[in-house]
Predict the structure of Glutathione peroxidase.
Amino acid sequence: MIYDYELTTGTGDTLKLSDYKGKVILVVNTATGCGFTPQYAPIEKLYKDYHEKGLEIVDIPCNQFGNQAPGTDSEIHEFCTLHYNTTFPQMKKADVNGANELPLFTYLKSQKGFESFEQHEYKELLEKMFSAADPDWAKKPDIKWNFTKFIINREGEVVARFEPTADMSKVEECIKTLL
């Protein structure tokens, strides 16, 4: 269950997801130097608009995709607050795939695997890149790129996965129905 996991914040504190029982949670892997980095703005807007109604955001920077989050935890935090005025909690940079992946992501991927990319300016580029590396890439639940989002309902169930190509209005609609 989602509440069994603990994370380390960018400042070294422990965040117990059990502290978010009864809340709607958006978990997202992020990067500061990605074509999807501007999604920090609508994610912050979600936080401002819905935090008082029960939304929590768990931002986990990840450097596994194109070395697009190369900074330290404090540098990443500074970038986000300076460029996007983020106020939601930011975790310590971590892996989301592979031998060193956070156990939280192992769980999230077991609950909601990859389905497809939505129509987006980067869709074709991403699909070509993944196909060249692994013909079976689309059948695997791995996180494909930065800004993959998981939505957890108030009962702690993973109810949705949105790839980075998903329109943020769809993410918002999902959250609104759960609040």
Observations:
- The helical segments are 40-50, 73-84, 103-111, 123-133, 168-178.
- The mean pLDDT is 96.
- The longest strand covers residues 24-30.
- The first helix runs from residue 40 to 50.
